[in-house]
Amino acid sequence: MKKFNIRKVLDGLKEASSPTPSVQVGPQENHLVQETLQSEHFQLCKTVRHGFPYQPSAMAFDPVQKILAIGTQSGALRLFGRPGVECYCQHESGAAVIQLQFLINEGALVSALTDDSVHLWNLRQKRPAILHSLKFNRERITFCHLPFQSKWLYIGTERGNVHIVNVESFMLSGYVIMWNKAIELSSKAHPGPVVHISDNPMDEGKLIIGFESGIVVLWDLKSKKADYRYTYDEAIHSVAWHHEGKQFICSHSDGTLTIWNIRGQGKPVQTITPHGKEDGKKPESCKPILKVEYKTTRNGDPFIIFSGGLSYDTVGRRPCLTVMHGKSVAVLEMDYPIVDFLTLCETPYPNDFQEPYAVVVLLEKDLVVIDLAQNGYPIFENPYPLTIHESPVTCCEYFADCPVDLIPALYSVGSRQKRQGYSKKEWPISGGNWGQGTQILLLSFLMLQVLYKLKTAKVFDRNRSKEDKGSTDVSDEDPFAIQIMTWCPESRMLCVAGVSANVIIYRFSKLEVTTEVLLEVRMQYELNDTDSPDGGGGGGEQTAAHPTPGAFPQTSGPPSHPSTSSNNSDGGNIPCLNTPLKQSPGYQVDLVVQSVWVSGEPPQPITSLALSSSYGLVVFGNSNGLVVVDYIQKTVVLNLGTVELYGSNDPYQRQPRSPRKTRQPSGGLCDINEGSTTSEDRCKSPTSGKVCFTSLCFPPIVLLSVCPPRGANPLDHRDNSFSRSRSSSVTSIDKEAREAVSSFHFCEGFARKGDSTLTPCLYVGTSLGTLLVLALTLPPAGEQRQLQPVIISPTGVLVRLKGSIMRMAFLDSTGILLTSAFEPWFEPNVTADEEREKVRKRRPVSVSPSTTQDFNESQFAVVCSEKQAKVISLPSQTCIYKHSITETSFILRADIVQMNPGVCVACFCANGHIMTLSVPGLRPLMDVNYLPLTDMRIARTFCFTNLGQAMYLCSPTEIQRITYSQETCENLQEMLGELFTPVETPEAPNRGFFKGLFGGGAQSLDREELFGELAAGKASRSLAQHIPGPGGIEGMKGAASGVVGELARARIALDERGQKLGELEERTAAMMASADSFSKHAHDMMLKCKDKKWYQF
C-alpha cells in the first residue's frame, strides 16, 4: 500500500497522499471548522477477547487461586477467573498445547506444546508473559507432572524416558529415568510412550510411570530402581491414585478400569467394565476410557469419574461423562466431544480426603461445570459469554453510548429465556480481581454478557419447507441465515435481511401477544425485454401490491393485466406461517417483506438496509434497485430500479428499455393480523437464523447474527463482493446496468442545491460510487401519519467517488456529528384507548443538532467509498476535501465515529491496514498494518464504533475487541483484572498422633538432594535448549504500573520472609533444646561414672 505523504500547507488545509493534489478547498470554507483530533490521539492495541476458546486441547485448574486455564490447538491460552477477569495469551510458535500445569498458589503456569517445548508463564502480572522456555531436541514430550509445592517438573517422552526440570531455573537435571531401567530386563519390547507420571500421595519418593503398552512401574527415586511392575494386556490411557497411596486405578483402551494394590504385582484387585454387557465369562469390549479420576470423601463412598467407555453398539450416542459413586452410576450426556475434564476438590493436598464438589468438563465447543454435591448432578449456570457460536456468526454490529434503560429492558426479557434447573451454588471459578478503574468503565471494557436471543425463523413455516427443496441456490443450505442488520437503540426497532431476500421488521414489547397471521409484503422482480443489455437490471423490483398514491410516478406506458399468475412466479419462496403465532415479550414481528421468485429464478440478494424510526420507513436495495416500505401504514412507498433514480441525469449511456409493467396484487398489503400467504411457496432446509444481543455490561452493545450450522460456513461463500471487479472503470455496459445499491442514510438535510431549509432526506449510495438524494415528504405526526401517504421524489446526484459507497454521515457547520432523528420507544401493545391515543399523538424526537440549526447555516456530508473519501459542503454541493485512501487495495469496512475530542473516519482495508482520517479535513491520523485478511469471517464481522472501539470475529467462536484510542491504551493496564491475588495456602492435613508415632503419615523427600547438580550432575546440552523469556522485564513494567499489585507483591514478600524467619527460629529453638538435652544427659553420665573404677565398667 502506498505510504501517505502528509504535507501541511496553509494551516494544514492542504494534504497530499498521492502524486496529484487530493484536496479541494472552497474559498468560503477555509476556517469554518477547527479540527481537534491529532495523530497523538490514536494508538492501536488489543483489549480483550471474548467467547469460547477455538479448538481447545488442554485444561488446568488452580484449586487455591480458583483460576481455570485452557490451551488450544493454535497455541493460545485463555485464563478465566471470576466473571470479568479473563486473559488471552499466545505462544509465538503457534503449536498446539498438549498439557497445562499450575504452580498452585504460586502465580505461575507451565505449558507443554506439540513442538516439544515447555514454557513457564508468570501470572503475577496483568498481561502474563513467558519467563523461561525449554526446547527438547531429541525427544518428543508426551506427559508432564508437577507435584504440589514442588519445584521439580517430571517430563515423560515418546521414547519412554522421564526427565526432570527445575521450574525455577528451567534447567534439566542430570537425573533421568530410562525406559530400559524401568521395565523388566527380560522384556524385549519397547513399552511405548509415557502416558502418565505421578508421585505416591503418601510417599514423594515413589513415582508411578504409566507406559502406553499397558505396563505401570512404581519407581523408587532414592534407590533409582523399580520397586514393582504391573502389567495388563490392554493399552493404558490414564492413571489415578487413591489418596492413601495404597491403591491406584488405570483406564484402558478396551473400556475397562483396573484397580491395583501397590504391593500386589500379579493381577489387579478389581477389573470393571462399567458399560460392558456380560457375554458369558468376559464382558464385551467397549470404547476406550480416555481419562479416569479417583476422588475420596470423608463421609461416604469415593467417586470414580471417567470419560468414554461406552459400548460399541451405541451408535450415534452423544459423548458421555460417567460418575460412579457407591452403587450408583450416572451417565451424563454432552452436546460435543469431551476434550478433557477436571474434578474440583476442597483440598490441594493429594494425601488428604479430596471431597470433590464439581467437575469441569471441557468440550470441543463448550465448557460445562457439574455440581457433584446435589442430587441429579445439575450444571452451574455459566457466566462467561461462551455460546455466541451456537450457530455460525454471519455479521456483527457494535453500538456504544446506548440509552441507559435499554440494557435492563433487554435483560428483563432475556432472563425469561434462560433454562431452569441450574445448580443453586455460586460459580466455582472465582479467582482474580477486577482492575482499579471505575467499575462502569471497567466492566464495559472487559465484560461481555448475553442479554437476549431472537430466532427470526419463527415467522416462517419450517414444516412446509421440508416437503420440497427444489432449488440448488446457495441459500438452500441456510435459507434463514441473516445477512444484514440495522437497529435503532433509542426506538428499539430492529430490522434484519436474510439470504433468501426477505426483510423482517421487529418492534420491542414487554407484553405477550398472539398474531393470527404474519403479514407478508410481496416483492416481485420483472425481467426487461431482450433489448436490455443485462436482461433484467433496470426494471428493479415490482411489488405485488396495490399502487401506492405516494409512490414516485412509474415510467410511461399502460399497465398490463396479469398475464402470469403469482403461482408460477414465486414457487421458490420461503412460506410464512398462516397459523396463530404466540410472541413472547421482547422483539415481536411487525412486518415481513419478501421478494418472490420469477420463472424459477431467485430474487437478487439484498445488499443494503436502513431503518428510520422517526420517519417510520425501512429501505432495502439489491443489484437491481431499491424499495422503501412504510411500516406504520404497512405499504410500499417506492419501488425503483437504480437507473430510474438518475432520471434524465444518468451519466452512463445505457441502452433504452421497455416500459415497466405493473402487476395486479396477488396477495395484497394488509394489517399484521390479516395478511396472506400462498400455499404454493417452496422453502429450503428447516433451520433457523438468530439475532443475539450481547452487552458489554454497560452502554456498549454488540449485535450478532448467526445462521444454523449446516455444511460449510456461510462466510466462505455468501459474500460475493470480493469476486466482483474492484475497478472504478465505467466503460462496461454490463457493469453500468448492474449498478447495485450499496448503502443508505436517513437524515434531515438540504435535498437540492441552493435549498435554504432542512427537509427529511434519504441518501442512496451505489456500487459505482454515486451518491443520490431522495427528498421525503412526510404527513404530520399523529392520526394523519396513519392515513396520508409518504411522498418520495429523487432530486439527482450529489457526488461521485471511486469504488462502491461504503458509509456516509453529516456534520453541522461547527463540525459536530449529526445523529439521525429517532422516535423514543413506547409500548406498542397497549390496550386502553387513552394509551393508544397517546401513542398516536406522540411526535418523533430528534437529538440531532440540526433541529436547532439556523437554516442559513451549512452542512458537511462525509462520504467514504472503497477507494476514497470526500467531504461535500451543503447546500452548495461543492467538494471541499477529498482523499485517496488506497490505490492498490480496497476498504472492507468504514465508519464515521465519534471520539472524545472530535469526529474521524475509521477504515479497515483488505491489506490489513487500519486507518483514521480527520473530519472534515480528511488528514491521515493513523495508519497501522494490523491484520491481513486471512478469511471472509473477518471481512464480514469487522466493525467500528464510537469512543475508539472496534471488534471482529478472530475465530468462529471468539470476538476480539481492539481500541484505536490513545487514552484507552494508556488506561488499559489499570483496567485489566488481576489473575493472581494473595491467598494463604490451606494447612496441610494433620497426620494424627499414631501416624506420627509409627510413621504412617506422608513421607517427604528432599528432591534437591536427589535432582540437584551436586548429586545428579548436569544434563546433556544437546538434549534440550534453554530459552529465557521476556516475562521478567515485562513483569517489572507491569508491576510498576499498579499500586495494588506492588502492595500485594510486597505483602507476599513479607509473608515469605516472615515464614522463613519463623522456620529459622523454630530450627534454632529445636537445636537449642537438643543441645540442652545433650548437655543434661552428658552431665548425668559424668556423675554416674565419676566414682566408678575401671573394672566396674
TrEMBL record:
One of its GO terms (biological process) is Golgi to plasma membrane transport. It comes from the Eukaryota. WD repeats lie at residues 229-263. Keywords: Cell membrane, Coiled coil, Cytoplasm, Exocytosis, Membrane, Phosphoprotein, Protein transport, Repeat, Transport, WD repeat. GO terms for cellular component: plasma membrane; SNARE complex. One of its GO terms (molecular function) is syntaxin binding. It is found in: Cell membrane; Cytoplasm. The keyword Membrane applies. Residues 528-579, 647-684 are annotated as: Disordered. Residues 553-569 have a biased composition (Low complexity). Residues 1032-1092 form the V-SNARE coiled-coil homology domain. It is a peripheral membrane protein. SUPFAM superfamilies: SNARE fusion complex (SSF58038), WD40 repeat-like (SSF50978). It holds the Pfam family WD40. PROSITE patterns: V_SNARE, WD_REPEATS_2. The keyword Transport applies. Its main location: membrane. PANTHER family: LETHAL 2 GIANT LARVAE PROTEIN, SYNTAXIN-BINDING PROTEIN 5. Belongs to the WD repeat L(2)GL family. This is Syntaxin-binding protein 5-like. It comes from Nothobranchius furzeri.
